[in-house]
């Protein structure tokens, strides 16, 4: 039987396990001191801004849009080359989603395409650091500023990366992170919002904390006892646990090593595939230091499905990231048409994500390289 090599997986050490079991032996399981410590560590990693942890990257997006006040009548401009949550979490709040095409080489949102679709109703420009490569925020921010919008960096793929010397988390007005097991570090399930504006961070915090207000200076009901708390706006319970935060704190100690190994794997793939006819390797801008989460190779000549199926048959657990968001029936049934973003659709038709995770061995990488090269030769 062929052993399946996954396209992504978590790396859990004995230290990670000990960190979690220490919480089980302590007094806090849910939201306690480990959550605070984890949020402080994420803040330090991402430029010193307020970080609010949560249960998933999707929850982080929902919180971020709520923190920015997104609602009916607003427009959110975003990329179709992402997981659906980047768009759906704004749509849930009542916003109209406007898709801007991506750059041909990076599959990142194209600032020129954003410029063409923004209006005075644009509330947020939401970029995605696809595969771990930060988007061009120095081009996006002036567009947002001109129309009175805010920028959002969906950095589910890119925590630990840098853009022009600045860390991911310091690139946009608000940043969202994901700590799913296949991501650059994990809390099991989890995410975070990083906000430059403390008021946006506080609003995101209250939204993820059932809307609870605990500041006596803001109470509308006075004269109650020290137990009192009240809700001014509806929120949800998106709180992370101490169990998850302990794992995250332990994983953060290894983030530099994770990034180093992902960079090594990317370099090996790039070198091997650079001269292979029928393949196109991912682009990297000179001013970016990515934290590679995916290795998105492009299979040319209309052979993507054939190669994908044959790779899986050979035990190589590849994936495709992603179907253009507006192809999903929830958007297509609302009137979004195929052909809207030609570069994104072309990229989707060619993309395969090869195995990419820190515990991938050199022999595993060689197996992937040899198998794919033979399939396209």
Quick take:
With 377 residues, the chain is α/β, with parallel strands linked by helices. It is 37% helix and 15% strand. It is built from 13 helices and 15 strands.
SSE layout and pairings?
Elements: H1 14-24, H2 33-45, E1 50-54, H3 57-67, E2 75-78, H4 85-92, E3 96-99, H5 111-117, E4 122-128, H6 137-147, E5 150-154, E6 162-163, E7 166-167, E8 174-178, E9 191-195, H7 198-208, E10 212-213, E11 230-231, H8 242-252, H9 255-273, E12 279-280, E13 288-289, E14 295-299, H10 304-313, H11 329-332, H12 342-350, E15 351-354, H13 362-376
Parallel strand pairs: 2-3, 2-4, 4-5, 5-8
Antiparallel strand pairs: 1-9, 6-7, 6-13, 8-9, 10-11, 12-14, 14-15
Helix pairs in contact: 1-8, 2-8, 3-4, 3-7, 9-13
Q: What would the keywords be for this entry?
A:
377 residues; alpha/beta; Aspartate Aminotransferase, domain 2; Aspartate Aminotransferase, domain 1; 2 domains; globular
Can you walk through the features of this model?
This protein is an alpha/beta fold and 377 residues long. The chain contains 13 helices and 15 strands. A seven-stranded mixed beta sheet has the order 1-9-8-5-4-2-3. A three-stranded antiparallel beta sheet has the order 7-6-13, with no helix packed on it. The protein has a three-stranded antiparallel beta sheet with strand order 12-14-15. The model has no long low-confidence stretch (mean pLDDT 97).
């Amino acid at each position: 039987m062929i052993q399946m090599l996954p396209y992504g997986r978590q790396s859990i050490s004995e230290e990670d396990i000990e960190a979690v079991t220490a919480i089980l032996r302590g007094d806090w399981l849910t939201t306690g001191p480990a959550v605070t410590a984890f949020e402080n560590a994420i803040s330090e990693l991402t430029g010193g801004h307020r970080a609010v942890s949560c249960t998933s990257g999707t929850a982080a997006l929902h919180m971020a849009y709520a923190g920015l006040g997104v609602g009916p009548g607003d427009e959110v401009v975003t990329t179709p080359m992402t997981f659906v949550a980047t768009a759906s979490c704004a749509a849930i709040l009542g916003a109209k989603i406007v898709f801007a095409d991506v750059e041909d080489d990076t599959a990142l949102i194209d600032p020129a395409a954003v410029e063409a679709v923004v209006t005075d109703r644009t509330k947020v420009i939401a970029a995605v650091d696809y595969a771990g490569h930060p988007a061009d925020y120095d081009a996006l921010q002036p567009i947002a500023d001109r129309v009175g919008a805010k920028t959002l960096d969906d950095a589910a793929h890119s925590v630990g990366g840098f853009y022009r010397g600045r860390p991911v988390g310091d690139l946009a007005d608000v940043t969202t992170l994901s700590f799913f097991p296949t991501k650059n570090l994990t809390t099991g399930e989890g995410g975070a919002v990083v906000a430059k504006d403390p008021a946006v961070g506080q609003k995101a915090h209250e939204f993820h904390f059932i809307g609870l207000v605990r500041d006596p200076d803001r109470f509308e009901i006075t004269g109650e006892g020290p137990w009192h708390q009240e809700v001014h706006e509806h929120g949800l319970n998106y709180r992370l646990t101490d169990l998850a935060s302990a794992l995250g704190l332990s994983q953060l100690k290894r983030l530099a090593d994770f990034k180093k190994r992902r960079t090594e794997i990317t370099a090996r793939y790039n070198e091997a595939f650079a001269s292979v006819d029928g393949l196109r390797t991912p682009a990297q801008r000179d001013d970016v230091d990515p934290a590679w989460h995916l290795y998105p190779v492009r299979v040319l000549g209309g052979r993507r499905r054939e190669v994908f199926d044959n790779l899986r048959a050979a035990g190589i657990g590849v994936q495709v990231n992603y179907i253009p968001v507006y192809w999903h029936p929830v958007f297509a049934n609302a009137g979004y048409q195929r052909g809207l973003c030609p570069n994104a659709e072309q990229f989707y038709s060619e993309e395969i994500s090869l195995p990419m995770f820190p515990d991938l061995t050199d022999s595993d990488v060689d197996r992937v390289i040899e198998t794919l090269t033979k399939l396209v030769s």
